[in-house]
Amino acid sequence: MSLPVESDAVAAAIQRWENEPGGLLPLLQEVQATLGFIPPEAVPGIATAFNLSRAEVHGVISFYHDFRTSPGGRHRVQICRAEACQAVGARALERHATTLLGAGFGDTTDDGAITLEPVYCLGNCACGPSVRIDDCIHGRVNGDRLEALLAACRQPEVS
Amino acid sequence: MNVEAWLPRDTSAVAVGADAVADALLKAGVELMRNGSRGAFWLEPLLEVDLGGERIGFGPVTVADVPDLLAALKSEPASHPLYLGPVDAIPWLASQQRLTFRRSGLGDPLCLDHYRQLGGYAGLERALDLSPQEIVAEVTASGLRGRGGAAFPAGTKWQTVLDAPAAQKYVVCNADEGDSGTFADRLLMESDPYQLLEGMAIAGLAVGATAGYIYLRSEYPLAQRVLESAIERARAAKLLGADILVSGRTFDITLRLGAGAYICGEETSLLDSLEGKRGMVRVKPPLPAVQGLFGQPTLVHNVLTLAAASAVLAEGAAGYQALGTGRSRGTLTLQLAGNIRRGGLVEVPFGISLRQVLEEFGGGSLSGRPIRAVQVGGPLGAYLPESLWDTPLDYEALAGVGALLGHGGVVVFDDTVDMAQQARFAMEFCAVESCGKCTPCRIGSTRGVEVIDRVVAGEQHEANLALLEDLCDTMEHGSLCAMGGLTPNPVRSALEHFTEDFG
Ligand SMILES: Cc1cc2nc3c(=O)[nH]c(=O)nc-3n(C[C@H](O)[C@H](O)[C@H](O)COP(=O)(O)O)c2cc1C
Ligand code: SF4
Ligand code: FES
Question: What is the value of pTM for the model shown?
Answer without folding.
Answer: 0.97
